[in-house]
Amino acid sequence: MVLVVNNVSKIFKSRSKETVVFNSLNLNIRKGEFLCLIGPSGCGKSTLLNIIAGLEQATEGEVLLEGKVVSDPGPDRIMMFQEAALFPWLKVIDNVIFGLKIAGVKKGEAYKMAERYLHMTHLSQFKNAYIHELSGGMRQRVALARCLCMDAEIMLMDEPFGALDSQTRFILQLELQKIWEATKKTIIFVTHSVEEAVLLSDRIVLMSANPGGIKKIYEINLPRPREVDSDAVVHQMSSVLKDLKEEVGKVAKAEFDTDWCL
Amino acid sequence: MQRLNSILIGVFSKILFYLILILIWETIFQIGVKWLQIWKPYTFPSPAFVLRSLIKLTQSNVLPIAIATSLRRIMIGYTTSIGIGTLIGVLMVSFKFLDKHLSSLVLGLQTLPSICWLPFAILWFGLNENAITFVIAIGSTFAIAMSIESGIKNVNPLFIRAARTMGSKGYKLYRTVIIPAAMPNIVMGLKQAWSFAWRALMAGEMLTATKGLGQVLMWGRDLADISQVMGVMIVIIILGLVVDKLVFSAVEKNIRHKWGLLHR
Ligand SMILES: Nc1ncnc2c1ncn2[C@@H]1O[C@H](COP(=O)(O)OP(=O)(O)O)[C@@H](O)[C@H]1O
Ligand SMILES: [Mg+2]
User: Fold this and answer.
1) Which ligand 1 atom lies nearest to the CA of residue A56?
2) In terms of Cα–Cα distance, which of A24, A31, A25 is closest to A202?
3) Residue A42: pLDDT above 80?
4) Are A55 and B158 inside 8 Å of each other by CB?
5) Domain range A3-76+153-229, CATH class
6) Mean pLDDT of all residues belonging to chain A
7) Does residue A40 have its Cβ closer than 6 Å to ligand 1?
8) What is the distance between the alpha carbons of residues A258 and A248, in angstroms, rounded to a whole number?
């Protein structure tokens, strides 16, 4: 177990109300596994990821990283967001080496590493461009290169391909799979696409909302590379989708307060 | 080549514009003063007289000294205001209590035309350089403080989160993320502060000074020399434009280019 989420509760308190996101959530993440989190929106996927990243504090409980309690963000757990979160005042390559510079890596060496990852994400020609000159897909690739450049053991990815067109997403999924197989990093990947989850992951964690928590965990023991239209994948997808629909339906019912039905 | 061409065309069209403007001015002078004689020559200057007056002021070294004096004063006052304004801004960002109460006070003080501080300044410092420096500084300090505060507070939180997961924190986080991210706002504040300072300087010099552009302007009035008044006004406009174009617009353009804000 590289990461242990131990009895973690998260409550957001504002002046008018308290939002209980989840209570006593437990999850063990294995070294080198590709774990997907899915669930209805608002069920706390981002919150859980933020707590693991150390960007958000758990109200109760703790996250243990190789036995040590996580309290701050650190370069050993790099995070990638749904929006690229790139810095507009820096060129592409300087964005990619940002974390390396913080870590004190020499500039020449950092550039060399960055160029390798920019090559991998097919962005070599754009290394001297500014962020606004790139398309959404290219920005997300820069963010991926920046993330990989940090060479962190654990990668936390919050719907990183969610806002992309399906073609770009497909390419980046392949790219990420290759990289993961080559480096055997531990990846926790939030997605709202069941297809993406089944294609990529070793395990899928389905979260439920109100009360938030883990509804079910699926072991995906399918051989790779996986094809979207293979029987096994389709079968797996339909069983996850059924449970997800049920959860989404619950949320919708609570939100719209009618006899909503999917 | 194409770029050079378009620059040349730009310059020519600008020169043409000002030539036409001067021509209209001369025509109005000829009709109003010379021909119909509705205005007295000492109430309406002509381009030729203004030019002659500027040459005279330059030859007698009055104008160069005045320009140097005014520029020195504004540099001192403006630099002071950057120092104090930054300090106030940073304090407001750092302490919630100050932010809550001081920022509305600072906003109020910013709306007060700084020349209103002149009586204070004279009582505190006497009729001297320090009084003028004070009036300049106080005119721009609050604008700078406000821009620093709002610039830092409006930094996209996503930038900070991303930087923190890459291990950036404390002073480094400020230097590498928060300040660059706040820069567009801060530059706007610096520019606004400069124009406040420039106005404060002119007002201060017209009322108190024994040197400087504002004083030469008032001296023209005392002599009933409308050409001198007009000439100095033109010099003040040109100086303001030059600083704006060479310093602030250049910096702003650079930032806009990087961030991809509004191409001009
Ligand atoms: N900073 C915050 N303050 C208050 N409530 C929040 C905050 N962040 C998230 N929440 C609430 O916590 C719940 C879970 O949010 P989130 O983790 O973003 O869900 P997901 O990523 O699964 O869509 C939501 O109900 C959301 O409204
Ligand atoms: Mg989310």
Assistant:
1) 1
2) A31
3) yes
4) no
5) alpha beta
6) 92
7) no
8) 14
Q: Which two tokens stand for residue A155?
A: 């990668």
Q: Rounded distance, CA A27 to CA A45, Å?
A: 13
Q: What is the ipTM of this complex?
A: 0.90
pLDDT 10s digits, B198-209: 999 999 999 887
A45 lines ligand 1 (CB under 6 A): yes
B168, B259, B260: residue with CB nearest A102 = B168
**CB-CB under 8 Å, A81 with B162:** yes
Cβ contact A31:A39 at 8 Å: no
Q: What is the CA radius of gyration of chain A?
A: 19
Q: B93 and B194 in one domain?
A: yes
- Give the dihedral sign, CA B122/B125/B128/B132: negative
Residues across chain A: 262
Q: Which domain holds residue B68?
A: 45-258
Q: Spell out, as residue ranges, where chain B has pLDDT lower than 70.
A: 1, 262-264
Q: Is the CB of A128 within 6 Å of ligand 1? A: no
Both B6 and B100 in a single domain?
no
- Residue A241, classified by CB atoms within 10 Å of its CB into exposed (0-12), middle (13-18) or buried (19+), is middle
Q: Are strands A68-69 and A203-208 parallel, antiparallel or unpaired?
A: unpaired
Which of B244, B217, B247, B214 is CA-nearest to residue B230?
Answer: B217
Other Cβ atoms closer than 10 A to A229: 6
How far is ligand 1, taken at its centre, from the CA of residue A48, in Å? 10
Q: How many CB pairs under 8 A join A and B?
A: 70
Do B27 and B146 lie in a common domain?
Answer: no
Backbone φ, ψ for residue A158 (5° rounding): -100, 95
- Residue A34: strand pairing partners: A187
